[in-house]
TrEMBL record:
Catalytic-site annotation from UniProt: 127 (proton acceptor)
Summary of subunit composition and partner proteins: Homotetramer.
Protein location: Cytoplasm
Pathway annotation: Carbohydrate degradation; glycolysis; D-glyceraldehyde 3-phosphate and glycerone phosphate from D-glucose: step 3/4
Species of the source: Desulfosporosinus metallidurans
Name listed for the protein in its UniProt record: ATP-dependent 6-phosphofructokinase
Top-level taxon: Bacteria
Gene Ontology biological-process annotations: canonical glycolysis; fructose 1,6-bisphosphate metabolic process; fructose 6-phosphate metabolic process
Length: 319
């Protein structure tokens, strides 16, 4: 019987549990033994590994977070850590590994692939910053969480006639800000991919004010810089009262949306198919509404294209 391992690594994302459940159940269905590795590469390096059963993934399909726990492993960046990881896999005779995580996690996976481990990555990060897939697990849920939060902020922004600067996650990627900003009609969206001009934004606020608009929401991707600083500069330029909300880690929690739960299950299932087909160095990808196998290398070297058309549209709609 072939034995495989599965771990979740890096920032957690809603849907990771649904992907894990699919890996475990489809793996067992096809006669594989599936081992769950706790706390990402940290748990791999330190041998925190247990066999999973059909029951060990019961009741988790819609639960946020990851029951395997996750970590960002400094040790996995070192030769020594990678060697220890390999030794643990050899000890348990695990010859294939499913890595659910973001690009840092995939980088770790590639070092194991280079040492002969059969590797399949499942893109799991709220940031949606992985090239080669239209969606990563957790992005849709996080975006919905932002939209929900902004609609609440809009209520108080409107009552008090204030400008709110709302900072969202995404690391160096503006996807959450863009999609959420368009969805909730933000007056301005600031993303790291596109330069911005605070004078222009301030003029826009003033124009809106002249038309009787009494409040505004400015969504700022964290990769742009400090929301506090931007708020301060806008207040100085426009004279409008500003407030800052940093949504932070609440964007990473919660039940996965239906879309996230579905793509997570499909990606988990596809990962098992890739393993059974004896392919390695692959990742599951969501392309044109289908979950497919794609080279892990596709996640590297190229920056995920930013949807400038949608960004321009958001600007046009928020004149
Ligand atoms: O990659 C997911 C993410 O939530 C980013 O959006 C954010 O920059 C980072 O992780 C935060 O990491 P941590 O939870 O380690 O503070």
């Amino acid at each position: 019987i072939k034995r495989i391992g599965v771990l979740t690594s890096g920032g957690d994302a809603p849907g990771m549990n649904a992907a894990l459940r699919a890996v475990v159940r489809k793996g067992i269905y096809h006669g594989l033994e599936v081992y769950g590795i706790s706390r990402g590469y940290e748990g791999l390096i330190h041998g925190e590994i247990q066999e999973m059963t059909i029951g060990s993934v019961a009741d988790i399909v819609l639960r946020g977070g990851t029951i395997l726990k996750t970590a960002r492993s400094e040790e996995m960046r070192t030769e020594e850590g990678q060697q220890k990881a390999i030794e643990q896999l050899h000890k348990l005779q695990i010859d294939a590994l499913v890595v659910i995580g973001g690009d840092g996690s995939f980088r770790g996976a590639q070092t194991l692939a280079a040492r002969g481990v059969q590797i399949v990555g499942i893109p799991g990060t709220i940031d949606n910053d992985i090239a080669g897939t239209d969606l990563t697990i957790g992005f849709d849920t996080a975006t919905n969480t932002v939209v929900d939060a902004v609609s609440k902020i809009r209520d108080t922004a409107s009552s008090h006639e204030r400008t709110f600067i709302v900072e969202v996650m995404g690391r160096n990627c503006g996807n959450i800000a863009l999609q959420a900003g368009l969805a909730c009609g933000a007056e301005s969206i600031l993303v790291p991919e596109i330069p911005y001009d605070l004078d222009e934004i301030s003029d826009k606020l003033k124009r809106g004010h002249q038309r009787g608009k009494n409040h505004s929401i400015i969504l700022v991707a964290e990769g742009v810089g400090s929301a506090y600083k931007i708020g301060e500069e806008l207040r100085a330029r426009s004279g409008f009262e500003t407030r800052i909300t940093i949504l932070g880690h609440l964007q990473r929690g919660g039940n996965p949306s239906a879309l996230d739960a579905v793509i997570s299950a499909a990606m988990g299932g596809k990962a098992i198919e890739i393993i059974l087909a004896k392919e390695s160095n692959k990742m599951t990808a969501y392309v044109n509404q289908l979950v497919v196998s794609s080279p892990l290398d596709a996640a590297y070297g190229v920056r995920r294209p930013f949807n400038r058309e949608l960004y321009n549209l958001a600007n046009e709609l928020s004149i």
